[in-house]
Specification:
The chain is an alpha+beta fold and about 325 residues long. About 40% of the residues lie in helices and about 25% in strands. Bound molecules: (3R)-3-hydroxy-3-methyl-5-(phosphonooxy)pentanoic acid (PMV). (3R)-3-hydroxy-3-methyl-5-(phosphonooxy)pentanoic acid binds near residues 17, 24 and 157.
Amino acid sequence: MRLKRSSARASAPGKVVLFGEHFVIYNNPAILAAINRRVNVSVHVNNTDRITIDSDLGLVGSLKDSRFKVLKGTKEAKTILAPLCESARKVLAERSCDLGLDIELVSNLPDRVGLGSSAACCVAITAAVDSLFHKPDRYWIYAKAAESERLIHKDSSGADCNISTFGGLMYFIKGKGFKKIHSKKELSLGLINTGKKHSTAKLVSSVKEFKDVNRFSFKVLASLSKNISQKAYAAIKEGDEKTLGNLMNQNHVLLQEIGVSDKKIDRLVEKCLTKGAMGAKLTGAGGGGSIIALIPRNEDSLRIFFQGIGKTVRGGESIPVKVDYDGVLVA
Ligand code: PMV
């Protein structure tokens, strides 16, 4: 395919999982919301045979043929950047074009804390590179970005790439697709990033071990999770915040049962409830990461909640978040 232009920009939002993380990998429903924090990508065609990525995490690396080299940063740079270079390479291969690229990543989404930053990077890079050739199709972006995300963690449900591509609130079942949820009331959400980074791949495999050892219990927990997500779907549509908050609390207990919460998360979830949240739970893979809380939609409740939690949570932060309805954007 012929190049339409020599540079492009795209951005994609992060996400929170409101219900059903981990169980979603085993074909149970999950509810996700895209959030108003994004990864921004710019892509320029260069006249080398390399794809180079420069990230504002202070990491630089480049891919030539199938060899990745760290140019700046620790060994960790390879784990983070190599799959992202690969996602750009995949798009070029699909468009039968062998080009060198300079990719710049700027993110206002903290990485490895359950907010879908790797998925958002895969989505934004796929979209930016494909838009060098034509106007990209969202379904195609999603499919390619999800393939790339599987290089980062092989059992990914694909939910993160889906919500980052399409935005909004959605009910997602792996392999079956998604339904957009039209919420009757705007959700008032508080996000607490504990500052403790996690490895989604490790947590997903620890849940698999739990499942293999406790087959019966896992089956019961998965069916409870399914039931919670189904009820939450109805509660969001009806704007029933009280029920939604209760369901979040119930969902957190299931995540404790499968071993992905920890003392710090549990303490913060408790604190959210004492500071007026209607419900709170960990969001994403757990093992540190982030917590999401549903707060009554009025100025006083928001003020009391954020004053009570504090702006900074040792190494992390607490912030109000809004649902992002745009999904991936190409400029
Ligand atoms: O990688 P995280 O922490 O943003 O969360 C991923 C959600 C999981 O259900 C744990 C994994 C998946 O692929 O759905």
